[in-house]
Amino acid sequence: MKKIVLALALSALVTPTFAKEKDSQASRFEKLELFNKVIHIIETNYYRKVNIDKLIDGALKGMFQTLDPHSAFLDKEVFKKMQEDTSGEYGGLGIEVTQKDGVLVITTPIEDSPAEKAGLKPGDKIVEINNESTIGITLDEAVDRMKGDLGTVINLGILRAGERDIRYFDVKRQKIKTKPVKSYAVKDYVVIRLSQFQKDAARHVVRALKKHKKELGKKFKGVVLDLRSNPGGLLNEAVNLSSIFLNDGVVVSTEGRDPKNKEIRYVKKSGHKELDCPLAVLIDGKSASASEIVAGALQDHKRAIVVGTNSFGKGSVQTVSQITEDAGIKLTIAQYMTPKGRKIQALGIKPDVMVSQVEGEFVEENMYDDGGIREVDLRNHLTATVETEEEKKARLKREKIARKKRIERAREINKHIKNKDKDRKYSASEDYQVIQAIKFLNTVNKFKKM
């Protein structure tokens, strides 16, 4: 009797789970059947012949767009470029981009890069690449379009906040060789500006620290670590940089689908240490990824005052996997967390002291048209009739002439603004946020002496 009761109890536990899995499988097969029916209807009824491979690739890309901006299906062409082992040099623009509400947005133009020199700014929306609309394309497709051979020029159509006209920028692709660190001595404080977490970034920070500490001698009062507009980079360098100012403990951990499976990165015990000097970290809305890891670690360990505005909020981990001989996927598999378990993704790092940057610039408005996006601007837009080859060539020629006129008008505006900004040079001693950070560190120093 006991065996029968036990068997019935086990059955009651197992059966619902089994039933749910069975229902889930049935639902999946129904959806796949629906997908197959839709493809069949398109193939047989669409008024033009379709490429089935292209159709399925498009469906797969759309699937990943329902996940997050950083996950993507890598088709044959994109995956091949990622896997190529070539000794040739490829040119870049020096911008970090993301997608917001389906629109391509510049997160950060890297300091001294072709993009920054051309006049591109954080928050600029890229609506055209080489006169083609970016509407409907994935982030990876957009990035792929912007890559090219060294020395070649790309034209970007930009919509800037507060403006209605599209601006056009010609940017020459160059090998991106940025100086990761720029440093200054301001009021007996060392200000270290890190533009990107590239290889040996932490070593460059140490070199700058030693140089200025030697120059200041006994006057040395503390450090301002400037991570504003820093888009991130190598995780190892984020750990290395944090380890300069921390003695021990966790720098960052990752949380995957199973919260129990965590990868933890600890402070490195070896290397140069600055454990006692007052420290402020500057961040803003363009500080992302590795920048947020460092700011979060120093904040959680109460090692630094974080000053500025809320950071970008890029706290996810991606991995690339090959799924067929010539295709792959890039998938978000985990999230970064600060030492105290705070998630960075979409939340960012909130400063201890909120200080906005003061802008004294005013944009001159030059209105030519309403700047709106029309059906003809849409990628793969449908033409009113089935065109002959001659009609298609004539239409493309007309569109090209019209765009050329718009570009020429926009260049007149850009030329005026660039000439106005050309002679302006950065000065740490006049940087409002730097000065505020130093004031807070001075206050800390005074309290320590009391």
UniProtKB/TrEMBL annotation:
Coiled-coil ranges (or none): 379-406
SUPFAM superfamilies linked to this entry: ClpP/crotonase (SSF52096), PDZ domain-like (SSF50156)
Xref: SMART domains: PDZ, TSPc
Domain PDZ span(s) in chain numbering: 79-147
Keyword Protease: yes
Leader sequence segment: 1-19
Name assigned to this protein: S41 family peptidase
Species, as recorded: Halobacteriovorax vibrionivorans
